[in-house]
């Protein structure tokens, strides 16, 4: 009768790892581009179900770290264990198959496509029918499309973006574009969601909205989140644990309160000469 | 069901009746997950029943009050029926009210339960719950974000409904007991308490009975021939009496389908998809719609734009006459039919009015041009005058008897009289029972024999249509004893685009005088075209040619006033153009841009005297506040001009002579 489910069916996939166990373990990783050392001997882990923040001044190696985590960069030294499996070098689309989705510091959406199509694009990695079927758009391909569309509609409902469903994203204000990008990442039903500065360039109200969505994604759907963010207030309120990088090195790691009072962190942010 | 529905005096009884007579017809639609979900009357009954039985397990009893807070969603509408079926009383609140306002209403209404939409509302209610000791349980519809809340006194709607379904499945006699509860409900009992958002003082709880709603709804249905085939879209606040009548009571009594939009932001889109046959909107909705169309047409290609302009001009010429079934030549009719095909039809489709049979606007006066625009497209848009205390209907315009400047004839079964003071009073089956826990206010508003003061001043025109002129407390008398309605005069002046604001004086005076503020954009534009140089507002306002233009407008306004027997005496004899713009920073306007008449009278006392002592000009110094808070002084010599007065209809002359 009423097809509306009372609870979202979209939850993080069960990967056999219990809440609170290590989902991702980065061990002694170093990454350099020619002579430039982006990351030096960093170890950190992400526990299942937590919100993990990576912070640090400009050029500290945060985005490099995210790129290492999602497999876009392969570090020269160190090991990465994701879902109990050691990772070898792989391409980004293989990384997606692993269950890691991300958003970007500068919004990276298909500007000419609608919100709906952008989020549908996030599901494309899961579509099984080949291009021939897709073009026919009959039978199994249609059925598959409907299934995916249902999931996408749940995300649209979840992020409260019904009113822009058919609007080309290029026309949307920045805050909404960020939300669409989050939607596309969620569409992949990731076990680990990486957010690269989700609040950058937002006003206070947009930040509050975004914070609520991040918390809801984490609590309601049980998605593990690792995020980079410059707004300290947001970081301290949202995250369960914070790791601080400076010049490619890890200088602190722990709960927000602890990190806030760490002398090295204060020095790094206030700019004590090295 | 072998129930006897001989006396359907409550909406819960109508629900049982509809589940039989309209069984498989749609009762409710809701756009969710991008798709319109529908419920038939049978399914709606099932939903309401499950919720009611579930609410019983939480301890809801006859006479309890339940606050209902949220947007237009099926579940909140079902809660009205479920609560009423148990003899309890729903109290819908404005969803955008801040927590403190909510605390006042929850306390005053003694709400034991709150049924709310989502986390936002739960948070608000929880934050004030220490101040509202009587409130025990909160039921929420949308579970998002509420997973980790303490659920001892917090319940998911779905859980309550499930509990109800469970009872129905396992307990014996539950269904009969529920039917008996419904049968116990009487028409004269309180069905709902609606809090009016009073502009002054605390909101008052208007108690309305089942009879009020059932009879008003039936009258409304008959007046506009509404039946089970209508569709309407519910998007106005639940706490507003109009929504309660249009989207709930009328739907239950007529059996038509109510569509709930996906979210507040998607209403326009959703309306286009649903294409309601019965629609209600305050004037500003029609205004925004027109503006957005005009803006888009500016960007249209030349051919389209030309076609649009051509056919709209034709519609303006004959559209309304065709709608009113007046005589129109064949040529014009054919051209109009072509326009319908090429322009009006697609335009109405765009606005979601393709199927609209009856549309109402109310709440405030609608601009005559705006009103005529929609009517010329063939839309049966009408005006309605009503208030919460009347269960909406006081007057409404009947098909074919529609004019933009009146609010229509008395609605069915409504008696209206104009009090000595000019105040409109009415008596009808919709008249409220009283203000909840406020005997004094009830006595002030409602006479022992059932007449209610509207607080508005008005009069019947020659056709017997009611015209509302002002709030009764603002209406004064000229020294001659004639009615003086400042807002009516000011609105007549403000009709001209060059006049931005006007303030009329005349209470206790010999004649009516006015201050005028010119519209800098409109007059500035005119000055540029006519090569009139000016350096400031003050200079432009004092320009002789500007005075000429305004004098012509005042003359025209007087001509219009002269046509109304009651208004003829308050034609403007003298006016002046104020040397500065009225400004909220100086306290001359409210923040919502309404004129603060008393404050202005005090501040410009000298100028008012100059209006009445016959002087031709007056030197004044006025203190002003700049945006950064600094104060300054404007000095000016303001010229006072005489206006042409028109001959009034004979009746008014007689009255003035007495």
From TrEMBL, chain A:
GO terms for molecular function: ATP binding; ATP hydrolysis activity. This is High-affinity branched-chain amino acid transport ATP-binding protein BraF. Transmembrane segments: none annotated. Keywords: ATP-binding, Nucleotide-binding, Transport. Coiled coil: none annotated. It comes from Nitratireductor indicus C115. Residues 24-272 form the ABC transporter domain. One of its GO terms (cellular component) is plasma membrane.
TrEMBL record, chain B:
Residues 18-436 form the AMP-dependent synthetase/ligase domain. GO terms for molecular function: long-chain fatty acid-CoA ligase activity. One of its GO terms (cellular component) is membrane. Coiled coil: none annotated. The keyword Ligase applies. It holds the Pfam family AMP-binding. PROSITE patterns: AMP_BINDING. Signal peptide: none annotated. It comes from the Bacteria. Keywords: Fatty acid metabolism, Ligase, Lipid metabolism. The keyword Lipid metabolism applies. PANTHER family: AMP-DEPENDENT SYNTHETASE_LIGASE DOMAIN-CONTAINING PROTEIN, LONG-CHAIN-FATTY-ACID--COA LIGASE. This is AMP-dependent synthetase/ligase. It comes from Nitratireductor indicus C115.
């Amino acid at each position: 009768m009423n097809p509306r489910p009372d609870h979202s069916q979209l939850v993080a996939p069960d990967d056999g790892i219990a809440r609170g166990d290590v989902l991702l373990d980065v061990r002694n990783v170093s990454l350099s581009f020619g002579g430039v050392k982006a990351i030096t001997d960093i170890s950190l882990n992400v526990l299942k179900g937590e919100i993990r923040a990576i912070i640090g001044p400009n050029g500290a190696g945060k985005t490099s770290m995210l790129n290492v985590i999602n497999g876009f960069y392969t570090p020269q030294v160190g090991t990465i264990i994701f879902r109990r499996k050691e990772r070898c070098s792989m391409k980004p689309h293989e990384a997606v198959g692993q269950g890691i989705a991300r958003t970007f510091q500068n919004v990276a959406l298909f500007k000419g496509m609608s919100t709906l199509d952008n989020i549908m694009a996030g599901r494309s990695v899961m579509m099984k029918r080949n291009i021939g079927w897709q073009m026919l758009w009959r039978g199994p391909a249609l059925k598959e499309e409907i299934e995916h569309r249902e999931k996408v509609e749940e995300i649209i409902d979840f992020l409260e973006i019904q009113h822009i469903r058919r609007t080309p994203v290029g026309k949307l204000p920045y805050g909404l574009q960020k939300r669409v990008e989050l939607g596309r990442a969620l569409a992949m039903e990731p076990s680990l969601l990486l957010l690269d500065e989700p609040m950058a360039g937002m006003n206070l109200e947009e930040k509050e909205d975004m914070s609520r969505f991040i918390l809801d994604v984490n609590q309601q759907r049980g998605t593990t989140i690792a995020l980079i963010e410059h707004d300290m207030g947001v970081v301290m309120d949202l995250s369960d644990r914070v790791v601080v990088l400076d010049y490619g090195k890890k200088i602190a790691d722990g709960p927000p309160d602890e990190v806030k009072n760490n002398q090295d962190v204060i020095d790094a942010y206030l700019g004590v000469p090295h | 069901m072998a129930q006897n529905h001989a006396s359907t005096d409550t909406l819960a009884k109508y629900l049982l009746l509809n589940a039989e007579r309209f069984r498989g017809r749609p009762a409710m639609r809701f756009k969710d997950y991008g798709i319109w979900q529908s419920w038939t009357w049978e399914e709606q009954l099932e939903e309401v029943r499950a919720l009611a039985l579930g609410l019983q397990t939480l301890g809801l009893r006859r006479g309890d009050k339940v606050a209902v807070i949220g947007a237009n969603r099926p579940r909140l509408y079902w809660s009205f029926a479920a609560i009423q079926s148990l003899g309890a009383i729903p109290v819908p609140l404005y969803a955008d009210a801040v927590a403190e306002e909510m605390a006042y209403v929850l306390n005053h209404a003694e709400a034991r339960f709150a049924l709310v939409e989502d986390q936002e509302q739960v948070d608000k209610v929880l934050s004030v719950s220490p101040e509202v000791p009587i409130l025990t349980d909160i039921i929420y519809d949308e579970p998002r974000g509420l997973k980790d809340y303490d659920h001892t006194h917090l319940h998911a709607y779905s859980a309550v409904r499930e509990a109800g379904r469970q009872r129905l499945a396992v307990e014996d006699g539950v269904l009969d007991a529920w039917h008996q509860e419904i049968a116990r409900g009487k028409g004269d009992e309180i069905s709902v308490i609606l809090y009016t958002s009073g502009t002054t003082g605390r909101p008052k709880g208007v108690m309305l009975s089942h009879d009020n709603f059932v009879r008003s709804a039936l009258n409304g249905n008959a007046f506009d021939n509404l039946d089970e085939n209508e569709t309407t879209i519910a998007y106005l606040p639940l706490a507003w009496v109009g929504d309660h009548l249009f989207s709930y009571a009328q739907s239950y009594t007529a059996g038509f389908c109510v569509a709930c939009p996906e979210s507040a932001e998607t209403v326009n889109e959703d309306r286009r998809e649903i294409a309601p046959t019965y629609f209600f909107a305050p004037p500003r909705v029609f205004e925004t719609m027109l503006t957005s169309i005009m803006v888009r047409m500016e960007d249209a290609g030349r051919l389209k734009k030309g076609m649009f302009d051509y056919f709209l001009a034709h519609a303006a010429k004959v559209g309304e006459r065709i709608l009113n079934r007046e005589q129109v030549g064949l040529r014009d009719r054919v051209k109009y039919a072509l326009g319908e095909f090429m322009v009006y039809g697609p335009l109405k489709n765009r606005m979601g009015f393709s199927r609209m049979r009856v549309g109402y606007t109310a709440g405030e006066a609608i601009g005559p041009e705006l009103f005529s625009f929609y009517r010329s497209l063939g839309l049966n848009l009408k005006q309605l005058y009503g208030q919460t205390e009347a269960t909406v209907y006081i007057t409404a315009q009947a098909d074919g008897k529609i004019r933009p400047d009146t609010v229509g004839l008395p609605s069915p079964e409504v008696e209206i009289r104009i009090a000595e003071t000019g105040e409109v009073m009415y008596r009808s089956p919709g008249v409220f029972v009283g203000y909840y826990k406020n005997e004094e206010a009830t006595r002030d508003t409602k006479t022992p024999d059932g007449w209610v003061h509207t607080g508005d001043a008005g009069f019947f025109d020659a056709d017997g249509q009611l015209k509302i002129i002002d709030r009764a407390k603002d209406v004064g008398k000229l020294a001659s004893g004639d009615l003086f309605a400042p807002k009516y005069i000011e609105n007549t002046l403000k009709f001209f685009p060059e006049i931005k604001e006007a303030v009329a004086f005349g209470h206790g005076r010999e004649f009516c005088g006015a201050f005028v503020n010119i519209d800098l954009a409109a007059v500035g534009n005119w000055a540029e075209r006519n090569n009139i140089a000016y350096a400031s507002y003050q200079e432009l306002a004092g320009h002789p040619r500007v005075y000429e233009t305004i004098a012509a407008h005042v003359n025209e306004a007087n001509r219009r006033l002269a046509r109304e027997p009651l208004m003829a005496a308050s034609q403007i004899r003298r006016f002046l153009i104020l040397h500065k713009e009225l400004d909220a920073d100086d306290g001359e306007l409210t923040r919502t841009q309404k004129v603060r008449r008393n404050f202005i009278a005090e501040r410009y006392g000298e100028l008012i005297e100059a209006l009445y002592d016959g002087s031709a000009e007056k030197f004044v110094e006025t203190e002003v506040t700049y945006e950064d808070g600094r104060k300054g002084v404007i000095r000016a010599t303001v010229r006072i001009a005489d206006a042409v007065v028109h001959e009034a209809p004979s009746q008014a002359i007689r009255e003035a002579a007495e």
